[in-house]
Amino acid sequence: AVIAEFVATLLFLYVTVLTVIGYKISSDTKAGGDECGGVGILGISWAFGGMIFILVYCTAGISGGHINPAVTFGLFLARKVSLVRAVLYMVAQCLGAICGVGFVKAFQSAYYVRYGGGANPLADGYSTGTGLAAEIIGTFVLVYTVFSATDPKRNARDSHVPVLAPLPIGFAVFMVHLATIPITGTGINPARSLGA
């Protein structure tokens, strides 16, 4: 399960940070790009939400598909995972994120340095408090969706509404990215922010 969390977070950061850097390359007018080029905020949001959907789907049966220390911490507080498992997951997620971004840096070192490595900067015009509030609310939306999508009582009560848990979780990540990329670049995942 710990290996699954490590690999999933590695793949998550690898694909998403490459998407961010690819967008910055194609929209950099100083380097021959087009201001309207690349995938844009919509494409970046799809990359994050889509990868979460894929990776939660792939790892849910192995580790629960957390891929995020905030999710693991929330599940720990709800007594759904033990302290030892929570700590091991968080360490694996952070190391996976660092390794995932390490691969990006190894393959795209010049672009990685030029475009900030997919880090989460606070946008001009926003205060630190606004950025913090955006991240708190965004992380809440994600963790709340995880709890709702994986609630066993809901599955029993609403059996007529089939729920594929990774789908609403991926959509939550997608929607939060649409809302908060212009403010903070969207963290909502401490491992993602640490790795980048």
From TrEMBL:
What is the membrane topology listed in the Swiss-Prot or TrEMBL record? Multi-pass membrane protein
**Keyword Nucleotide-binding on entry:** no
Coiled-coil ranges from the UniProt annotation? none
In Swiss-Prot or TrEMBL terms, this protein is called Aquaporin PIP2-2
Question: PANTHER family, alphabetically?
Answer: AQUAPORIN OR AQUAGLYCEROPORIN RELATED
GO cellular component entries: membrane
Which is one Pfam family of this protein? MIP
Q: Name one GO molecular function term.
A: channel activity
Where in or outside the cell it occurs: the entry states: Membrane
Specify the superkingdom.
Eukaryota
Similarity comment: family membership: Belongs to the MIP/aquaporin (TC 1.A.8) family.
Keywords, in A-Z order: Membrane, Transmembrane, Transmembrane helix, Transport
In terms of InterPro entries, this protein maps to:
Aquaporin-like (IPR023271), Aquaporin_transptr (IPR034294), MIP (IPR000425), MIP_CS (IPR022357)
What sections of the protein cross the membrane? 6-25, 37-62, 82-104, 125-147, 167-188
